[in-house]
């Protein structure tokens, strides 16, 4: 009897079936915040950082001033007294009750008109002459000593000369502004021109730029930070000069208002006028600094 055939035995372990793929769960993430909202928050923080410290300092100054001047026998009015005496100059700066009885807003505009003319002429002449002095060694040797002497003359010392020359208060005040503001513009422009890198000059020579192209494409861009530094100093000096000149020449400017208020013993009016003068001077400086940032792409100092 034959034996049954032996079956082949599979000794390999059974392979477990592959697990079924799990369903992928996609989490819904919140949408990112709007870029515009982030920009607004950043600007708000920047504005608060720039505004709050000066306001706190101003509040502290006013508090100390009130404490010192509110006592009996004080020679200066306290802030509360200034408000009671001269609040109309703040609330209504553009009233007109007569040829000389006008608000401080009109007086400031009159002074700014004179400053615009004198300062504009100083900027044009100062940049032009400063370019010549900075570019020419002989011009620098011949003119620089004269400029260094003239720039040390106080602004009001020019007033009698200008009155004798022009025979009128308005052009005399404009000349005082011009002669005061021109020196920092001229000197800074010449320094900026002299500091142009030699590589720039070599490139201009290779490209065969003429004098006009060299002036617009090489000189002005390279010297712009120096020029705007001079312009900022000049506008501050011009605003100082017009106030001092108007005290002596008269008219309806802010300077004459201060002198007239002193003669009338109106100290509160003088204090309000000083606030106007300081605020306008700050605005003028910020305007020139902003223009410098745009033109020089941030290379000029703020």
Automatic annotation (TrEMBL):
GO terms for cellular component: plasma membrane. It is a multi-pass membrane protein. InterPro entries: MetI-like, MetI-like_sf, NtrB. It comes from the Bacteria. Pfam families: BPD_transp_1 (PF00528). CDD domains: TM_PBP2. The chain crosses the membrane at residues 44-68, 116-134, 172-193, 214-231, 237-259, 271-295. Keywords: Cell inner membrane, Cell membrane, Ion transport, Membrane, Transmembrane, Transmembrane helix, Transport. It is found in: Cell inner membrane; Cell membrane. Residues 108-293 form the ABC transmembrane type-1 domain. One of its GO terms (molecular function) is nitrate transmembrane transporter activity. Probably part of an ABC transporter complex. Probably responsible for the translocation of the substrate across the membrane. PANTHER family: ALKANE SULFONATE ABC TRANSPORTER-RELATED, MEMBRANE SUBUNIT (PTHR30151), NITRATE IMPORT PERMEASE PROTEIN NRTB (PTHR30151:SF7). Belongs to the binding-protein-dependent transport system permease family. This is Nitrate/nitrite transport system permease protein.
